[in-house]
Amino acid sequence: MNTKRLTKSSTDSSLQGVCGGIAEFFGISSFLVRLVFIMTPVSLIVYILLANMLPDGPRRLYSKY
């Protein structure tokens, strides 16, 4: 049984990894998630809440960089 959990991304992060984690969870581009966060007026409040509430994602041995 494979259960997906929404976590902050450990590899695709600009600030806290919130947008990268959302993108990994839904299987979409992190650029699109970041664009939505920039375009919405209450995004700063939502981002701060998610950055504090979401658990850190699993650390990977190799990064994509």
Can you walk through the features of this model?
By secondary structure, the chain is an all-alpha fold. The protein has a domain at 18-53. The protein has three helices and no strands. The chain is globular. The mean pLDDT is 85.
How are the SSEs placed, and which strands pair?
Layout lengths: L17 H9 L3 H10 L3 H11 L12
Which terms summarize this structure?
globular, mainly alpha, 65 residues
* Biggest β-sheet strands, sense, barrel: none
Give the low-confidence spans: none
Report the end-to-end length measured between terminal Cα atoms.
31 Å
Averaged pLDDT: 85
What is the 3D shape? Answer: globular
Structural class: mainly alpha
Order of helices and strands: HHH
Percent strand: under 5%
Gyration radius, to the nearest Å?
Answer: 12 Å
> Helix content range of the residues, please?
40-55%
- How large is the count of helical segments? 3
Q: How many strand segments? A: 0
Compact description:
This protein is an all-alpha fold and 65 residues long. The protein has helices spanning 18-26, 30-39, 43-53.
